[in-house]
Design a protein that fits this description.
The protein is of the alpha/beta class. The protein folds into three domains: 241 residues, Up-down Bundle (Four Helix Bundle (Hemerythrin (Met), subunit A)), CATH 1.20.120; 105 residues, Translation factors (Elongation Factor Tu (Ef-tu), domain 3); 169 residues, Rossmann fold (3-Layer(aba) Sandwich), CATH 3.40.50.80. Helix content is 52%, strand content 15%. The strands form four sheets. The protein has a seven-stranded mixed sheet, sandwiched between helices. A six-stranded antiparallel beta barrel has the order 5-6-9-8-7-10, surrounded by four helices.
């Protein structure tokens, strides 16, 4: 597709095929094949559409009849069966022969479900199975929970066994047997680390991690199995099963989005909401697929039997279609491009639709009300706990000269300072108001920001001004001493870094930051440096690289860190010049450009060196891993996507060689 740019030159519009876009395209395509039923004459169409007959609407006048068009090939007469003999409901009132041909055609296409007539006892049995399998799908969440706990137990036992083995071999053992055992264990450990590294890698840029895709496919297949198991040939049973299992997944879906510090899944898995939110997205996609199948199967039945207009006037159909439409809007607005265009619009639609669909489902059918009540209870409980954990304070806003950065200083009660000081790298959610506090609507639309520094009774945030209302409102109050803005601070949150655990398990630590991503890395660096102060030669284990646009952006770090960079040759700062840091790394990463000679200067921050140009990430990684062949390395990164991909690719070469690596990545815009 071509278009004219602002200069009048013609060019091509670039589309990025990511996981969200692929999901929306496939879902809309399959739904179209199932419901609209435009004739498509290739075998694959019968995989996606309900392979009954091809339908066309004959409308010579308003209110024309619904007709059927059959395939050109004749149907074997031996397959024709009467509706009365088989107990099937009528598919067309116009002709019994036409119905029998339809039955034969479905048999030819190996379609297992048909419109059947059931007695009252059979309907009661179907209802019991529907409720039973919905409960099974909800209780299935216990499987990954228990599996994770078993995995942690095995890792703990293996670590204890490893320490005991080292102590035992010190007493003496056959050198040949010892070397053989060590060789086997090293090979197994190397393969395990390589597998974990591969699972945590992207399928391709913007398509998500392999491990998440595998887990998503496995979970979707399990739920689809629950949808079709023991449904027999009853078309309505499988149709209803899609809807009941989708509704049973809603409490799990909402639980994955809970943000308070007492979130059950966050506590069980030892993580935070920013990690669980990816699984929330996956669960939402699967629920959308099930709801889409539920709606498509029902609409197909209405079309086949010619009662579409009549049934659309009933409450279940109206509420069902409304819910399907709202969920479709929610899915479309949640794709990455929409979130980047306006996070506030995405979040408002997400929250509003997520609340509106609950009463709609409540009145859709009485059998879903238990799951609606569970979901609503989780949502209300999460909001109450988050509100209790929120403080309202006035702030001081300062604009850093010659940059688009804002420094926000917030006074924190003494009772809460310890939570901020406990672990570095945490973040808070902030909403801004010019009055005495944030209104209910503003509080729902808070934005996350990383805590750059914690001092006595005060935390400091660093923000890059964007076009959004939060940073623009703060910008209007920059460098003012009157009419200070009032904000709500919720948190802290995040899978913060356990300094004692990192320094005890890993021999060397590499920190890499890009642009504003230093707000996460610098607190980690400060905590590690303070930990190494009491260790002889400990500072040699720590390497820090920071790439940013200009020297002016280092000013805030020079003030906050208070000479913590001084006389440290392992701290390297790179000035990429004007323009976007993300653009700089994208061009270099895809074009394979080599970096030329760098000009160095001293004294940028407390005596540390600054280089002009991009950092050579491969050289930095190789230097970190080349000290000793058996050292384990922890790598922390925060910055643009492409910079992180390049860094991870270089680290991956050493993982393939058998090195033990801990990788922690936080993604920020530059």
């Amino acid at each position: 597709m071509r278009r004219r740019n602002q200069r009048g030159e013609s060019g091509y519009v670039k589309f990025i095929w990511d996981g969200d876009t692929a999901f929306c395209f496939c879902f809309c395509f399959c739904f179209w094949l199932t419901v609209i039923r435009i004739p498509i004459h290739f075998p694959v169409s019968y995989v996606f559409i309900v392979p009954i007959i091809e339908v066309q609407i004959r409308t010579p006048r308003i209110g024309g009849e619904l007709g059927f068009r059959f395939p050109a090939s004749p149907v074997p007469r031996g397959l024709l069966n009467s509706a009365e003999d088989k107990g099937y409901a009528f598919a067309s009132s116009s002709s019994a022969e036409e119905y029998n041909v339809w039955i034969a055609y479905t048999r030819i296409m190996f379609w297992p479900w048909h419109f059947v007539r059931l007695g009252s006892d059979e309907k009661d049995h179907r209802r019991r199975l529907l409720d039973q399998y919905a409960v099974y799908s909800q209780l299935s969440i216990l499987v990954p929970i228990l599996s994770y706990q078993v995995y942690r137990l095995v890792i703990w036992l293996l670590s204890k066994k490893g320490r005991a083995h080292v102590a035992y071999t010190a007493l003496g053992q056959s050198p040949v047997g010892l070397e053989s055992a060590r060789g086997w264990s090293r090979t197994a450990a190397r393969r395990w680390r390589s597998t974990i590294w591969w699972l945590n890698g992207e399928i391709s840029p913007n398509l998500g991690l392999r491990g998440r895709w595998i887990a998503a496919v496995a979970w979707a297949c399990w739920l689809l199995f629950l949808c079709v198991n023991r449904t027999g040939d009853d078309y309505f049973h499988v149709t209803k099963r899609f809807g009941s299992i989708a509704a049973a997944q809603l409490p799990i879906h909402y639980m994955l989005s809970m943000r308070n510090r007492y979130s059950p899944l966050a506590v069980i898995f030892g993580t935070s909401h920013e990690q669980l939110i990816h699984w929330h997205q996956i669960c939402g996609r699967i629920i959308m697929i099930l709801i889409g199948l539920h709606g498509a199967f029902y609409i197909n039945y209405f079309v086949q039997t010619g009662i579409l207009v009549e049934r659309l006037q009933t409450r279940p159909s109206m509420t069902g279609l409304l819910c399907l439409a709202l969920m479709s809007v929610l899915t479309i607005t949640s794709i990455e491009k929409c979130r980047q265009w306006s996070f506030r619009a995405f979040y408002f639609c997400h929250l509003a639709i997520g609340l509106v669909v609950l009463p709609i489902l409540f009145f859709h059918t009485s059998h879903l009300r238990l799951y609606v009540i569970e979901t609503l209870a989780l949502f209300v409980g999460d909001r109450i706990l988050r509100r209790v954990d929120t403080i309202t304070e006035s702030v001081t806003v300062t604009q850093i000269p010659a940059t688009d950065l804002l420094k926000v200083q917030i006074h924190i009660p003494a009772s809460k300072v310890s939570r901020f000081q406990a672990k570095p790298g945490q973040h808070v959610y902030m909403c801004v108001s010019t009055g005495s506090g944030c209104s209910g609507a503003n509080r729902l639309l808070s934005n996350p920001f990383t805590v750059a520094n914690v001092s006595v009774g005060e935390v400091t945030l660093l923000l890059r001004t964007r076009r959004g209302p939060t940073t623009q409102m703060l910008l209007t109050h920059a460098d003012r001493f009157n009419a200070l803005p009032v904000i709500d601070i919720e948190g802290p949150y995040g899978t913060s870094v356990d300094i004692a655990d990192v320094t005890g398990k890993f021999d060397r630590i590499l920190l890499v930051a890009g642009g504003i991503g230093a707000t996460f890395v610098l607190p980690v660096y400060r905590a590690l440096r303070e930990h190494f102060d009491g260790e002889v030669g400990g500072h040699k284990r720590l390497n820090f690289t920071w790439a940013l646009r200009s020297a002016a952006e280092v000013a805030w770090a020079a003030e906050l860190e208070d000479q913590v960079f001084a006389d440290n040759p392992n701290v390297q700062i790179y000035l990429t010049g004007h323009g976007s840091l993300e653009h700089s790394f994208r061009n270099s990463f895809f074009d394979g450009m080599e970096m030329g000679e760098l000009q160095t200067s001293d004294g940028l921050v407390g005596g540390s060196k600054a280089h002009m140009g991009r950092p050579n990430l491969r050289e930095i990684v190789d230097q970190t891993f080349s000290y000793h062949g058996e050292e384990s390395v922890a790598v922390f990164f925060c910055g643009p996507h492409d910079m992180g991909r390049e860094l991870r690719a270089h680290v991956g070469r050493w993982v393939a060689k058998g090195r033990s690596v801990f990788w922690r990545q936080e993604i920020f815009g530059s």
